[in-house]
Amino acid sequence: MSAATLERAIEIAEDLIAFDTESSKSNLALIDHVETYLRRLGVPFVRAPNAAGDKAAIMATIGPMVDGGVVLSGHTDVVPVAGQSWTGDPFRLRRDGGRLYGRGACDMKGFDAICLAMIPEFQAADLARPIHILLSYDEETTCAGSLDVIRRFGIDLPRPAVTLVGEPTSMQVADAHKSVSTYRTRVRGHESHSAKLHQGVSAVHVASRLVMALEKIGAEIAEDTARSDRFDPPVSTVHVGVIGGGTARNIMARDCSLLWEFRGLPGVSLRTAYNKFTLACDEIASRRFAGFPDCEIVTEIEVEIPALAPEPGSAAETLALRLAQANRTVAVAYASEAGQFQTHGVPTVLCGPGSIEQAHQADEWVEISQIEECLAFMRRLKSELSR
Q1: Looking at 216-331, which runs of residues are DSSP E strands?
Q2: Which domain holds residue 273?
Q3: Are residues 28 and 108 in the same domain?
């Protein structure tokens, strides 16, 4: 059965990768495909569409419909391929030696395929507690695609005891990652000829002061809040990624915008940078906008992804370490949906095949040996939950 399940996992990965589910696009064709597979196996599931109706999450349950089970969490969306130099079709799985190539092979359709391939083995076991497979959307953008299902735990869906998120960790157990908060700040100035600076307010000039304020805020947060050598860098960070505005060299800019982010260590509030920045905006506006009532600075909170905080001895950590046959945890640099589960009271860790070093790039790949290691992990989970 072991070899058959491996080949089934690779075949399912090939099917999943063939769907172009970049986060800007619908994942419904993939979800329909998964539903057909689940119906063929007689597995009950729930589908949770987004508000627009163009995307959906799905959760399948193998075993008794009771509390105390384990969620295997994966996402169906992938990052874009535009501008990357692929040596083959990114949406066609390529098997070369001991590797599987394709967009999502590592992050994280490979893990999704493993979970789905294991269903017949899960069904053959006498499970005392259920195994739930949750496949979400928009993980690469907002990490909010699993929330509609998570909010139903303990209401009309069984409440799990543990969530295992299959992000690529090289099958190490990760118990921590930083939060991510992203913002769009818009500055409205007052246009005038650049020869008459006193008659206007340049949104570009104000925005440049905001960038300097954010740099100062980042330094203050790094100095004043907790450090953790488990992360590189070991501090919370602030970064401005995009700035744009203005119409011509000799016109004082009316509009300018900043795209910036805050990545916070576990235990540091999601709004730490935002709150400090709001005060800085008020101070800058009071000095720069006097006499120009049409000028303003507005910051929109786009995404807030909670950190995953270590929970030594939690049910998730204890179980995952046992299944991975490991004795220590690691921290990861990227964010994930794990913090969403933890925030809603479900102990959560990450453990999945492949390395983040191979994700999000051209010719993304995962080692077949990592697929095999994850299948062994799943079989230990099956035994753990069996009567």
Answers
A1: 237-245, 255-264, 296-305, 330-331
A2: 179-305
A3: yes
Q: Which of 252, 271, 305 delimits the end of a domain? A: 305
Give yes or no: residues 339 and 202 share one domain: no
- Give the end-to-end CA distance of the chain in Å, rounded to a whole number: 21
Task: Please tell me the total count of domains within the chain.
Answer: 2
Do the beta carbons of residue 291 and residue 311 sit within 8 Å? no
CA 216-217-218 angle, to 5 degrees, is: 90
The first and second tokens of residue 188, run together, are 């409205």
Give the distance, in angstroms, between the CA of residue 1 and the centroid of all CA atoms in the same chain. 33
pLDDT averaged over the chain? 97
pLDDT digits 0-9 by tens, 33-72 = 999 999 999 999 999 999 999 999 999 999 999 999 999 9
Tell me if residue 163 falls in helix, strand or coil: strand
Quick one: 300 and 326 in the same domain? no
In this prediction, what percent of the chain has a pLDDT beyond 90?
98
Helix (H, G, I), strand (E, B) or coil at 12: helix
| pLDDT number for residue 2 | 77
Q: What pTM was estimated for this model as a whole? A: 0.94
